Automatic annotation (TrEMBL):
Its EC number is 2.3.1.286. Substrate binds at residues 63, 66. Binds 1 zinc ion per subunit. PROSITE patterns: SIRTUIN. The keyword Cell membrane does not apply. Keywords: Acyltransferase, Cytoplasm, Metal-binding, NAD, Transferase, Zinc. It catalyses: N(6)-succinyl-L-lysyl-[protein] + NAD(+) + H2O = 2''-O-succinyl-ADP-D-ribose + nicotinamide + L-lysyl-[protein]; N(6)-acetyl-L-lysyl-[protein] + NAD(+) + H2O = 2''-O-acetyl-ADP-D-ribose + nicotinamide + L-lysyl-[protein]. This is NAD-dependent protein deacylase. NAD(+) binds at residues 19-38, 98-101, 182-184, 208-210, 226. Zn(2+) binds at residues 124, 143. The active site is at 116 (proton acceptor). It is found in: Cytoplasm. PANTHER family: NAD-DEPENDENT PROTEIN DEACYLASE, NAD-DEPENDENT PROTEIN DEACYLASE SIRTUIN-5, MITOCHONDRIAL-RELATED.
Length: 247
């Protein structure tokens, strides 16, 4: 582990970005740690609009399995530490996740944006209405709004626009601390958030198992498992923010 301690400064607007690494200790596979395969599939075979057009059954089956897997996993210490921090911290806080699992939600995070969509939601391809969803989608699953088999996973695939970008950019442009956890920095726009936060004058820290693709853009680094490093870091950060406020 290499770590600089949190600065004794009362941060007032914190943005946290999380990626697949934060869910790894819950048993959810990351995207790039298995020889480029995600659950035995190449990403472009299951996570692009072209893949869905070419082979909708394969793509639906793939996401049905991911959705079903959520019943077998639960939030780990890193998800819980973020939810707890948000509750205790009295500044502005925004958690942006690239993850499509529901582990931050179940941990109790409130100000949370799923920029790459959510497994527990589906969308009508015709009306774009979004529904909460826990079951499989099959050939016979009809959409509530048009009574046709028009549902697709509410997931942002490669080539599609991530969600909530206006809100995310606004928060980044005014944050004074940006924390990135468990993301490899391969996928934009999320990988560029550190640059925007830096331009806003924010302090920046990367917490990851290993240096990410964009490590050089961060001022501070903590390398190790999120389930261990993040709770330790957030405890210190909360103390520093509270002490600085009381002073
Ligand atoms: P990646 O799989 O690219 O990266 C996960 C990162 O987490 C790696 O840098 C790992 O070293 C790190 N990691 C693994 N275990 C960890 C642990 N226990 N604690 C801390 N870090 C750990 O996943 P993302 O960066 O999230 O997009 O991928 C970004 C996007 O690419 C995903 O949202 C997805 C994917 O294609 C879409 O589906 C649109």
């Amino acid at each position: 582990m290499t770590a600089n301690s949190a600065r004794p400064y009362a941060y007032q607007r914190i943005v946290v970005l999380t990626g697949a690494g934060i869910s790894a200790e819950s048993g959810v596979n990351t995207f790039r740690d298995n020889g480029g395969l995600w659950e035995n599939h190449r990403i472009e075979d299951v996570a692009t609009p072209e893949a869905f057009e070419r082979n909708p059954e394969l793509v639906q089956r793939f996401y049905n399995l991911r959705r079903a897997q959520l019943t077998e996993v639960k939030p780990n210490a890193a998800h819980l530490a973020l939810a707890n921090f948000e509750q205790e911290y009295d500044g502005e806080f925004l958690l942006v996740t690239q993850n499509v699992d529901d582990l931050h939600d179940r941990a109790g995070s409130q100000k949370l944006l799923h920029m790459h969509g959510e497994l527990k939601k589906v969308r009508c391809v015709r009306t774009h209405r979004v529904y909460d969803w826990s079951d499989d989608i099959t050939d016979n699953t009809l959409c509530e709004c048009c009574q046709q088999p028009n549902l697709r996973p509410h997931i942002v695939w490669f080539g599609e626009m991530p969600l909530f970008m206006d809100e995310i950019y606004r928060a980044l442009q005014s944050c004074d601390l940006f924390i990135s956890v468990g993301t490899s920095g391969h996928v934009y726009p999320a990988a560029g958030f550190v640059e925007l936060a830096t331009q806003a004058g924010a302090d920046t820290i990367e917490i990851n198992l290993e240096p990410s693709q964009v490590k050089d853009a961060f001022q501070e680094h903590i390398y190790g498992k999120a389930g261990l490093m993040l709770p330790m870091y957030l405890t210190k950060l909360l103390q520093a923010c509270q002490a600085s406020k009381d002073a």
